[in-house]
Design brief:
This protein is of the alpha+beta class. Helices cover about 30% and strands about 25% of the residues. A hairpin with a 3-residue loop joins strand 2 and strand 3 (about 60-65).
Length: about 140
């Protein structure tokens, strides 16, 4: 947990350092620069305490995310704008067991800050693909392997 907090602090600091560049008129997220996010998934409607945490680093690939290649591909599809990820088709139950996902860090010099709550993990996975599929020992109902 201490390592996750230290990594989160470093990534957030990097994001704060990019804020002046964004305020000065950065026009998009398609430029050059590092891609590094701290991702969390928490049970319930609050982001804390986080049940699972992963570091996702792209270009070069690294971090603690268990599906780095696929997660980075999904992130690149939307140029770092996680809210733009497209929903995948597939069945999910109507079970209400909410989960909250967060992402903080940088995408090519632009700060990323994302939080969203879904009614269950299946809905989260359908919405975000592999981005938040780093929890070990958790199945992915309704999604192809």
């Amino acid at each position: 947990m201490r390592l996750a907090k230290a990594v989160l602090a470093g990534v957030l600091l990097a994001g704060v350092c990019t804020a002046p560049a964004m305020a000065a008129g950065s026009s998009g997220v398609r430029g050059a620069g590092p891609i590094a996010l701290v991702l969390t998934v928490a049970s319930g409607e609050r982001a804390l305490p986080a049940g699972h945490t992963a570091l996702l680093a792209c270009e070069p690939l690294g971090g603690t995310h268990s599906r780095t290649h696929q997660a980075c591909d999904r992130l690149r599809e939307v140029y770092g704008d996680i809210a733009r990820l497209s929903h995948r088709e597939g069945p999910c139950t109507d079970e209400y067991s909410p989960v909250t996902a967060t992402a903080y860090g940088t995408y090519r010099g632009n700060a990323v800050s994302y939080t969203r709550t879904w009614p269950n993990r299946c809905e989260m996975w359908r919405a975000t693909g592999e981005l938040f599929q780093f929890e070990t020992g958790v199945g992915r109902p309704g999604l192809p392997g």
